Fold each of these.
Amino acid sequence: MNTKGGLTKRNTQVQEMQQKDTSLKGLIKAMEPEIKKALPSVITPERFTRMVFTALSSTPKLQQCTPQSFLGAMMQAAQLGLEPNTPVGQAYLIPYGNVCQFQLGYKGLLDLAYRSGEIKDIQAHEVHENDEFEYELGLEPKLKHIPAMSNRGPVTMYYAVWHTKTGGYGFEVMSKDDVLEFAQKKSKSFRNGPWQTDFDAMAKKTVLKRALKYAPIATDFVKAVATDETVKSNISANMEDEPDETMTIDAEPIPQNVDPETGEIIPDQEAAK
């Protein structure tokens, strides 16, 4: 497939479409043939387009993003066969300044892992203060988690475990503090999006990604995971091969309206205390 030639042609078409209809909705409708080619059979282009329109209306800041970056994030979701900005939590289109960032969700990462055909079972869980939890590393790694039947207390840790069809397995454990520190330093969109609305799911995705680094999984899966938290404005038939345009920035201090323990937004009255 001539990706480079298709890329140039598609980017030229996007520019021509912008001259005809400058609204994002107009551009999305014009790209429905490309969306149809990218999507798996289980998702119709009409349904996918409705989800994208809903994302635009429910997150007004997306309309302030450059059309190319928004369409790039949209096409990444389409080519991976993931539903963007739905309660399912497969993928997200996140406004970051004036560009749109594509972000994998916890459920999306699970789906991609199972689709690889090499994973038999994969799980990620929260550990609460009153749960029975212990693990060992070394030559014979072990992990044991027995959730408390009641009054489990606050979440203190997260872990992920994978098993392959050939009998291999592995796990990763992170404290909540470690997850929060990682998110603040590494995630450009920590202040908005799923880190604020669904912290536990994003924490499980983070520990799951770490665990899967050691799993014997195909290159296609690795390339798909690498699309997480990327900005791409070049449209091609293989978005995963396009370079990430996210600018490297230093981690910013935690704003006053974000709880450093939970990562949740604090109402203005409480933050002022």
Amino acid sequence: MPIIEVSSLSYPGIEVFSTLTEAQLRNRIEPDKGLFIAESPKVIRVALDAGYEPLALLCEQKHITGDAADIISRCGDVPVYTGGRELLATLTGYVLTRGVLCAMRRPVLRTVEDTCRDARRIVVIDGVVDTTNIGAIFRSAAALGMDAVLLTRNSCDPLNRRAVRVSMGSVFLIPWTWLDGTLSDLARHGFRTAAMALTDDSISIDNPVLATEPRLAIVMGTEGDGLPHETIAEADYVVRIPMSHGIDSLNVAAAAAVAFWQLRVPENEKKMAGT
């Protein structure tokens, strides 16, 4: 692989790490086939293990034979741009986490049908725009038994650099795609829907009826306003998390983790389904 010493901020080929915005990265080739940036050796390794295609690396000099050595070896002939820590921080606008960035090709988006085909528990993210929350929701979804994630188009891109980093690469481990239809469309795929919201007719998250659903979609809303009224009206269930001390809500990422754990398919049922 070519090791290229970067001496200036205008060096040809490094614009993917410096001047291109997240929107430009998404649309660099065409809307559904753009690029994204993975940051830190651990996250990059998860992406490579999941089959994502590397296109270029940006690496501090000291990591070429250190933390990034195995990554560089795995990436074959892709260019490896390198320089000192201060120059790279000036180039990217931030100090690199563990000194390594990797530009990767975005995967071909799955259809909703393909994403949900073998799923029993899925997450619908509706209008969540905070990158940290998106990353945290994906990490919890992967860790706590969710099979897939669907996002409305007004949600944050899961392949945003910060969202990817916060997820610790979990975004590469769980199938996801965009949901262009309405919540009621999920019924065609066999799902009942549970909207996480506080309403007069909401049921507790530990209500036994929820555990009996063979296929359940858990719908999470925005950090501020929550789910739109029309989305709540479409849902089969409206579900609340009981709380103490007069607290009426949780951050969406925290609420998602609670919901995923409570509503996951029990391990004994998974084993029975696999036999």
